[in-house]
Amino acid sequence: MPQERRSYSKSFKAQVIAECAQADTSIANVALTHNLNANLVHKWIRVHAQKNLTFQTAFIPVKTSLPVPMHQALPATIRIEVPHSKGVVVVSWPAENAAACSAFLRDLLQ
């Protein structure tokens, strides 16, 4: 006749795991004290550690009360440096007015 598997309560497993966590305590000794197989106790400890790890790494959404500022792109500029005997002439022109910049350069260079 096959032997029936024993089942243990969660509180009993927690007690055995807590005893194994004590300093200077061997898992084999705790298992023997409770008439358990040491491999079974090791399995309980692994499962317990895995459950705790799952709870620790769970995603927790956080709502911020401050709006996140959007990075505004700097307006594009056309920068022209013209060497001159008295120094360098620097012209900065908004890129959206490129046609006007072109007309300015045409008049300047005539």
Give a brief outline of the structure.
The chain is of the alpha+beta class.
Task: Give structural notes.
This protein has 110 residues and is α+β, with helices and mostly antiparallel strands. The chain has two domains: 10-56; 77-109, no CATH class. It has four helices and two strands, in the order αααββα. A two-stranded antiparallel sheet has the order 1-2. It starts with 9 loop residues before the first helix and ends with a helix. The mean pLDDT is 85.
Task: Kindly state the number of beta strands.
Answer: 2
The main β sheet shows up as: 2 strands, antiparallel
Report the β-strand fraction as a percent range.
Answer: 5-15%
- Number of domains as seen in the coordinates: 2
Relative helix content: 40-55%
Separation of the first and last Cα atoms: 111 Å
Shape: rod-shaped
Class derived from helix and strand content: alpha+beta
